[in-house]
Amino acid sequence: MRGRAEREAVALLEELGIASPAVNVEDIATKLGIAVVRAKLEDNTSAMLIRKGSEALIMLDEGQVRERQRFSIAHELGHFRLHQEPVFVDKSPMHISYRNTASSLAQEPREIEANAFAAELLMPGRWVCDEVERLRNSGRSLDEDELVMELKKTFKVSEPAIKFRLLNLGLISSF
């Protein structure tokens, strides 16, 4: 059964008519009216979503590898679609969500949701399962590492991201 985050990611893909990998998350941000700006971010911050009223901006650490940037953008899009509550900074309603090393520890519910949204947006479960089946039926004899490398290229994600996705989908048994 899919959770709210996964359902929302699938709905967004359907809404935008995206039906195959690799998902262009920057194009999605643009279509949602969100600018993506790369800059040097401090304190292990990978990205942040800054929202004020109807305007939003994703600040992305320019030092990240491309695959990590894609996941960070998808993560912030998750916050944008799932978490609307503003915080107040200088008496002005503004919402800032950070993606940093703590975000991937799966301890804070909003971060868990944003990660689930990002995983489903970049690597929809149905697409991953279809691609695994296609590769296994291709006549090529792929071991698990080769399968991971093929999927990594197809979905343009990091090796740990696709491994976690395969594990969470029950397609591999260990990391």
Characteristics:
7 helices, alpha+beta, globular, 48% helix
Task: Provide a quick synopsis of the model.
This protein has 175 residues and is of the alpha+beta class.
Explain what this protein looks like in three dimensions:
The protein has 175 residues and is α+β, with helices and mostly antiparallel strands. Helices cover 48% and strands 19% of the residues. A 5-stranded mixed β-sheet has the order 1-3-2-5-4. The two termini are 23 Å apart. The relative contact order is 0.15. Mean pLDDT is 87; it is low at 87-95.
Number of separate helices? 7
Which stretches are poorly predicted, pLDDT < 50 over at least 5 residues? Answer: 87-95
Distance between the termini: 23 Å
Average of pLDDT: 87
Q: List SSEs in N-to-C order.
A: HHEEEHEEHHHH
**Largest sheet, if any?**
5 strands, mixed
Helix content: 40-55%
Question: How many strands in all?
Answer: 5
Overall SS class: alpha+beta
The dominant shape is globular
Strand % is 15-25%
Radius of gyration, CA atoms, in whole angstroms: 17 Å
Enumerate the strands of the largest sheet in spatial order, edge to edge or round the barrel. 1-3-2-5-4
